[in-house]
């Protein structure tokens, strides 16, 4: 299609946004459904009406004659959007500030004990905004934001409103502040947040109760039975970051005895848990989110992501980014990291002479973790995560004939092992276009850049943080007495 033709298509997509009868025909792509009951297609079409997929087939061109807007997907893979099941979005005007952070305590000191104090509500909005825009740009259509800087109710409002304004499907996990002065509005502010922003079940955003499992967490935010019961009373699910170590294993066993485990829970990291705890998580359908690069690069507990432990227990974990202040923000990196680490572990054991080895993950397995398992952990598998007629149209088009991806010899291999963020050509969330022809729709990069820089510069200036983009210990001087 010509540039002029693409411009007309985009104009039609934007003009018809919100029309429940608007038809879109994604035409001629290689369709990867991730639904075992809906066959993949070497060349096929996806038909969308309003927010939902209504049909997938080899040739639905009749819809074009019926007035559908036709999006040319030839030379592209059409697939479900990715699901990030754990990210701390508010920090992200500080992206890669401490890329060589060598333990979790250093991360906590820099972001929570030092710089987090200086965030105003508008800074929260900017951090969430740039994080979401980066996610959409890289093909992530649903993201769980574990928000742990609600120093006032206005800070929480700003975090949620940024997700609303960007139009991603999201989960706002409301958690208390980890360090420093705040007005202690949490968890008392949760009923207001729920009633103000989450009164409808038919919206892109959902709400969860957030806790921290690790022993460093103060009692008011630490994962325990009372928090799980409080979430139940509020009618929302619970996500706990930092589920690590023997103390968390003991608590998991206690939750099981009390009848509190279930698929309404998502536990993150899950490092250094014993076999009994893993079995209980699996038996009760608890969701597990593995931020593989975070565990390995920052050095969290054992630092070896718990991929194999989850698989051995019968859990298909989801994948997540965690902290952009240290790490890369896209799901291509997460998939490749998990793929490489798990296979290296299996093949090393084979080399050492072990028998009865676990199966090595395939590229399709890993893609399932980034889509289906992610949608399950985010609580939206009934709405998205696969290309299935009746589900909402959260999908992406991935260029399969770019310099780094051509020729298309294996669709799953191209997605997991060959493609990256620059191949994400188009993104749709609930049938609405968010990226088209490789550019985010409705956002001016210069304006976003200006706002991000202004926020970052003010935070660092107020904190007395001298930015040096070449200093390998940047962000650690003050906290470690290096001045």
Describe the structure.
The chain has 483 residues and is α/β, with parallel strands linked by helices. It has 15 helices and 17 strands. It has two domains: 3-81 and 386-440, Urease, subunit C, domain 1 (Roll); 86-377, Metal-dependent hydrolases (TIM Barrel, Alpha-Beta Barrel). Helix content is 37%, strand content 21%. Strands 1, 2, 3, 4, 5, 14, 15, 16 and 17 form a nine-stranded mixed beta sheet that branches. β8 (169-174), α6 (190-197) and β9 (205-212) form a beta-alpha-beta unit. The longest helix is centred in the C-terminal third of the chain and has 21 residues, at 331-351. The N and C termini lie far apart (58 Å).
The main pleated sheet reads as: 9 strands, mixed
* Unreliable segments of 5+ consecutive residues: 477-483
What CATH calls the topology of the largest domain is TIM Barrel
CATH architecture of the largest domain: Alpha-Beta Barrel
Return the structural class: alpha/beta
Number of helices: 15
Mean pLDDT, rounded to whole units? 95
Secondary-structure blueprint:
Layout: H1 3-15, E1 23-31, E2 41-49, E3 52-57, H2 62-65, E4 69-72, E5 76-80, E6 82-87, H3 104-114, H4 121-137, E7 140-147, H5 153-166, E8 169-174, H6 190-197, E9 205-212, H7 225-234, E10 237-244, H8 245-257, E11 265-271, H9 275-283, E12 287-290, H10 292-299, H11 307-313, E13 318-319, H12 331-351, H13 363-377, E14 395-399, H14 411-418, E15 424-429, E16 432-436, E17 439-440, H15 445-463
Parallel strand pairs: 1-4, 1-5, 6-7, 7-8, 8-9, 9-10, 10-11, 11-12, 12-13
Antiparallel strand pairs: 1-2, 2-3, 5-14, 14-15, 15-16, 16-17
Helix pairs in contact: 4-5, 4-15, 8-9, 12-13, 13-14
């Amino acid at each position: 299609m010509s540039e002029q033709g693409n411009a007309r298509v985009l104009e039609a997509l934007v003009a018809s946004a919100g029309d429940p009868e608007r038809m879109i025909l994604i035409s001629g792509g290689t369709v990867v459904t991730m639904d075992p009951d809906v066959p993949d297609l070497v060349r096929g079409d996806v038909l969308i009406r309003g927010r939902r997929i209504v049909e997938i087939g080899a040739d639905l061109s009749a819809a074009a004659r019926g007035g559908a807007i036709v999006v040319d997907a030839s030379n592209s893979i059409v697939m479900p959007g990715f699901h990030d099941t754990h990210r701390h979005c508010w920090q992200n005007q500080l992206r890669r500030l401490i890329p060589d952070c060598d333990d979790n305590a250093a991360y906590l000191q820099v972001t929570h004990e030092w710089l987090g104090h200086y965030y105003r509500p508008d800074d929260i909005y900017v951090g969430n905004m740039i994080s979401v825009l980066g996610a959409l740009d890289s093909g992530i259509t649903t993201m769980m934001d574990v928000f742990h800087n609600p120093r006032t109710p206005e800070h929480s409002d700003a975090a949620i409103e940024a997700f609303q304004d960007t139009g991603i499907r999201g989960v706002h996990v409301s958690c208390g502040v980890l360090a420093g002065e705040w007005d202690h509005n949490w968890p008392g502010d949760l009923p207001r947040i729920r009633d103000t922003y989450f009164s409808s079940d038919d919206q892109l955003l959902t709400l969860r109760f957030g806790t921290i499992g690790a022993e460093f967490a103060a009692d008011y935010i630490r994962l325990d039975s009372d928090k799980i019961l409080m979430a139940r009373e509020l009618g929302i699910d619970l996500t706990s970051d930092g589920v690590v170590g023997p103390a968390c294993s003991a608590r998991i066993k206690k939750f099981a005895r009390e009848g509190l485990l279930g698929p309404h829970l998502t536990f993150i990291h899950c490092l250094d848990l014993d076999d009994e705890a893993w079995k209980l998580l699996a038996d009760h359908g608890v969701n597990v989110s593995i931020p593989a690069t975070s565990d390995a690069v920052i050095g969290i507990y054992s630092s070896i992501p718990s991929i194999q432990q989850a698989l051995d227990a019968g859990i298909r974990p989801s994948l997540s980014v965690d902290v952009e202040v240290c790490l890369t923000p896209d799901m291509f990196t997460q998939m490749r990291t998990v793929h490489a680490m798990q296979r290296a572990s299996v093949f090393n054991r084979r080399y050492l002479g072990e028998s009865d080895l676990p199966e090595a993950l395939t590229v399709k397995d890993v893609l399932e973790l980034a889509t289906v398992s992610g949608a399950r952990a985010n609580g939206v598998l009934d709405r998205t995560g696969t290309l299935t007629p009746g589900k909402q149209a959260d999908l992406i088009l991935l260029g399969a004939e770019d310099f780094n991806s051509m020729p298309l010899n294996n669709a799953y291999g191209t997605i997991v092992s060959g493609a990256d963020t620059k191949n994400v050509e188009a993104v749709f969330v609930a049938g609405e276009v968010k990226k088209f022809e490789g550019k985010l729709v409705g956002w001016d990069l210069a304006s976003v850049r200006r706002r991000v820089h202004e926020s970052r510069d003010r935070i660092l200036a107020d904190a007395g943080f001298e930015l040096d983009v070449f200093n390998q210990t940047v962000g650690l001087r003050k906290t470690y007495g290096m001045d």
